[in-house]
Each structure stands twice: as structure tokens, then as C-alpha cells.
Amino acid sequence: MQMGEGVEWALHSCLNLAWAEHQAVTARKLAAFYDLPPAYLNRQLQALARAGIVASTSGPRGGFRLARAPEEITLLDVVVAIEGGREAFRCQQIMRDGPGGRSDVDYRRHCLVSQAMSRAELAWRRELAAQTLADIRDSVEEKHPDAPRMARNRLAQPAR
Amino acid sequence: MQMGEGVEWALHSCLNLAWAEHQAVTARKLAAFYDLPPAYLNRQLQALARAGIVASTSGPRGGFRLARAPEEITLLDVVVAIEGGREAFRCQQIMRDGPGGRSDVDYRRHCLVSQAMSRAELAWRRELAAQTLADIRDSVEEKHPDAPRMARNRLAQPAR
DNA sequence: GACCTCATACTCGGATAGGGGCTGTCCGAGTGTTTATGG
DNA sequence: CCATAAACACTCGGACAGCCCCTATCCGAGTATGAGGTC
């Protein structure tokens, strides 16, 4: 069970977009920030756009910007946008083929194994939903007060 | 991010092994219980054996049995045995290539994004480690008191 | 000088190949059982 | 009848293909820009 690395890129890119404020930033510049493949990062940003986390603008002076305030974007929003909303543990309802298995029972809700796994996954989601992009941004700024300025500088430079 | 379905099979099989008590059960019988591919389930049981969760015996009258008491087997143990212990979110330390990135800093520990993701994953692990196989077994028996007898009956039958 | 038109360059967006890991299967090494045989 | 030994049948264990999703890339549709020409 491994998370796609696009999640990491998306989170850091969202953070940079938060520092860029309302300035639209191109995928190329965001990719150059961490030396990432521009086309592939673009793909992740598209997923964020479909989820309504970022807004995109085409043409010259176009790019991506946050569609909502950082306080209204949770880490769970970003993870779900990139990885999809389906649960990591998907109950295949194998108990239906076991002794005493009923076809009219939804074991995704009644199987106690499935319940236990879902409970753990819920704790994971709850923790992700409890932290917003603004929380991360503020924590970073507290440790590195000049991070916003450095980010804006880098994003202002032409992307090579 | 999706968990392998072998985890579900392993959990249910461990539960059946708990009801079989100290009787060795072959992979074929465990597979027949839920109509699963025997060879593939065997593969998962081998992983459990390598992790020390079950003990295996070759030859006639051989099979698998729990290596520890159900109270000493957590859901996390089973998940780690099948899926591996590496974290779902693996920090690639992309900040090293960003502005102000240092090569001598381990961003897996210092990057705040990575910390937030690890915190969520820790909550998930904690929840999984809090429930043992005995907890699940007892919960099932409470709802279906004849589950152990039915399981033992099915496991006693020759696997077709 | 102001306005309109057109060519331009730049951006996102979706469609298109390549690779790694999960899924599924097979056969061989090892072992306890059973059976036949000889004392 | 009992001991012995060999043949056997059954099990785990690891090695071998197939498929799907993530990774990576490319090119086209759309658009704001800027230049050039005209009034």
C-alpha cells in the first residue's frame, strides 16, 4: 500500500500557491521550484482543479491559483483529489461465499473485520481533515520567517 | 492508494485459525472456506509465517496454526506482514532541490508536510494496533454464538 | 493619438506510451503415513 | 504377531507469467498579449 508521490508534490505546490497569494503561477514555475517533471505536475494540478481546490487560467499570464482560502483547504481534500476517495481497505465481502453467508447482507457494513479496518481508516482521515493548509503555512513561517519571501522570489523568476 | 486484497483474506483466515485452536489447517481448506484461489492464499499465509504470526508444518496432517495467542496478535501485525512495513506516504525530500534546501537535513523528519502526513498515518497504525484478533473473535461470537462451531465444522470437512 | 485587427506565443487539458508491483499459477523439496515384507 | 523399510501421498515453499495502475510525455484547443495598420 503506497501513496502516489503526486500527493507530496501537490501539497508543496498548494503551499507555494498560498504564498503566491492571488497571483496565478504556471505549472512550469511550480515544477521548477523543486525540479520536478513539469508535464506530470501539470497532471496533478489538473486533478486539484477538478476537485475545486485550485482554479486554472489558460493563455499568457495564466496558471493556477488557490480557489479557496488556505483555511478552507484540508490535507484530506488534497489527498482525496489526487488519490481518489475510495477507501484503502476495500471489503470484497468474501463472507458471502462462506458458511452462513447471506447474499442480501452488505458485509461492507456488517463484517466486523471490515468495520475494524474502516475505523482505523477513519482515524487517519480525521487526522488529515483536522489540519488545513493554513496550519502548515503558519507552522513553516514560524520556523522560517523568510520562507514566504523566498518562495515569492523564486516564483517571480522566469522558469529557466 | 489501495491495500492489497490479501490483507482481507489473511485477517479472515487468522480468525478461522483462532477458532481451529491448535489444529493445523491446510491452505486448501482455508481457501475453500471462502472460495479463494488456494495457491495465492498460500502465498499470503507464507508471509504470515515469515512474520511469526502463524506456524507452518509440511507433509500430511500439516498446515498452518496460530503461532501466538489471539490476544497477542494485533491487526497491525497482520497488515504489516502482508503489505510490508514501509509508510504509505514516503517523503521524497523534494525540498532539497528547492530554494534554501540543505543536503545535510533529513526532511523526512523536519519537513512539516511530511510530519503532518506521518501524524495521520500514526493515528491509523495506533488504531490498528489497539485491536487484537481476540477482540474481533469475541465480537463475532457475541453476535453469532454458533460461529465457532460452524467454522470448525467447515474446516473439519475435507476440502472437496 | 486612439482604435481595431491580426498574428503570435503561451497556457492548460486530455490523449498516448512505458514500467513496477499486485494478482494468479505452477512445480519441486520435505515429511508423516501407509503398506508390504521378512523374521 | 512385530519390526523394518520402502513407496507413497500430501503439504508448504519458492520460482515463474499476466494484468492493472502509477509514472512520464507529447501535442492540440483556447486565450490574453502585443504589434501593426488605419482613421
From TrEMBL, chains A, B:
GO terms for cellular component: cytosol. It comes from the Bacteria. PROSITE patterns: HTH_RRF2_1, HTH_RRF2_2. Residues 139-160 are annotated as: Disordered. It holds the Pfam family Rrf2. One of its GO terms (molecular function) is DNA-binding transcription factor activity. Residues 139-149 have a biased composition (Basic and acidic residues). NCBIfam families: rrf2_super. This is Rrf2 family transcriptional regulator.
